[in-house]
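re: ur question from yesterday

yeah so i grabbed the chain u mentioned. its 327 aa long if i counted rite. heres the sequnce exactly as i have it in my notes:
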Amino acid sequence: MMTSRVLTLAQAAIAAGMLLTSAAQAQDTGSSAGISPWGPADEIGTLNMMTDDSRTDILGRIAGGKIYDLAVEMFVGMPNCCADFGDPNYQSWMTHSPSRGETHEHLSYSGDGVSMYTHTGTHIDALNHFGLHGEIWNKVKAEDALETRGWTKSGVDKYPPIVARGVMIDVAASKGVDVLPPSYAVTVDDLKLALERQGSDLRPGDVVLVRTGLMKVWPDKQKFRLWDQPGLSLDAARWLVEDRKAMLLGADNFGVEAFPSTDPDNFVPVHSYLLAERGVSMLELVWLEDLSAEAVYEFLFIASPLKMRGATASPLRPIAIPVRTVN
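ran it thru and got these structure tokens back, copy pasting raw so excuse formatting
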């Protein structure tokens, strides 16, 4: 029987092979980084859909003072999507602490430090996170905008605070299950059925959050893992972005999309489609259990990325506030 360490190494080898295969075959897919309709200087993609009017509209429809916290707790030992790829786990330590048992101190000084992968916990993926053929969103080439400390283009520091209408699509509840099956790829029909059953509609500029139910097993690292997570299919992502004009997509799993990919030519087809081709940022590891339990499907969504220069992601603590529904 394999030890957990051997299994991890085997998984990492498989993942590395898939990544290399994806890179080698990318020329055959016909996909490429998209050109922004907001002009050559654009670095935030569909977040340009937010306007003063759109923010004023949704802020004016707040239905009460209850706030839903959509972030998971960050702690040492928490599930991490990408440690097998060599990315760091979350770590924290005391840099200063008062002396134990010393009551005569006038001032007790505590401080701490944190080290982590930027794609840890509830976070937003920036448009420089994935590209195609050496280019990220808006045809920006790595040779022109990638430096030792990170990208000079489309980093999370360029992102504005996000204030928009949010809609949760509770696919797990629609199917009558706690958690969707391992590696289940949510279809367009799944989304349509869930929206119909919960009486929701989608509008251009929405933040759309898809619930797979995977947070039911959070933070069990043996069950909440990258290798067999349910999530969006590429067709479902396309429908949300191209047909429903969603501004931002998110889910309660590691990568929004189902994993592993069934596309032999692309290790992360939804990532590359959204980030590189369409300029749509992604929210990962969003806590949707409270919204689901109270059947809150439409809300004011507020989140603000940290202004970390050039970073490919930022931790978030998004909130949802229920709003009055208007036809």
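noticed a couple things. The two ends are 58 Å apart (CA to CA). also Confidence is low (pLDDT under 50) at residues 1-29.
anyway ttyl
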